[in-house]
Amino acid sequence: MNKLYNLYEKYSKLHDALTTKTKDELDASLDPSNDCFYDYVYARYLCVDENTKYCVKLKNFKSNYEKLFTIAKGKEYDFSKNFKHLPENVYNNIMSTALLGTTIGIVPLFGVLYKVIELIIK
Question: For 36-81, how does the pLDDT look when each residue is reduced to its tens digit (9 = 90+)?
């Protein structure tokens, strides 16, 4: 839940910056958008089951964050260079990474063992 707290803290900074600051001040104050993006990706990796309370709160955060883009469009200023959209789907590749790493490690091992056993038999 600490991740969610940090995300909402950065969200509130972005919201305040978009609603109260002028166009010139916004460029310097939109750095939390990058932080939100990377923190969201990390928090999303922790979300294994979509129906947990954590994942539901994370979806709510994403919908609130996306509402900031309507505020940004109302300012009539191009924020695309420093105001990032959150990714649609972050895949949990834990299982595929483990299987791929194991396969890549075992195949050469079998090759070496085959040659060693062949030398021992001769």
Answer: 888 888 888 777 777 888 888 888 988 888 888 777 777 666 665 5
- Contact yes or no for 82/33 (Cβ under 8 A): yes
Q: CA dist 86 to 9, 25, 38, 44, 93, Å?
A: 16, 23, 9, 11, 19
Q: What is the pTM of this model?
A: 0.64
In angstroms, the CA 80 to CA 35 distance is 15
| CA-based radius of gyration for the chain | 23
Nearest Cα neighbor of 3 from 40, 47, 55, 52 is 40
For 97-117, give one letter per residue: b (16+ CB within 10 A) or e: eeeeeeeeeeeeeeeeeeeee
Q: Length of the chain, please?
A: 122
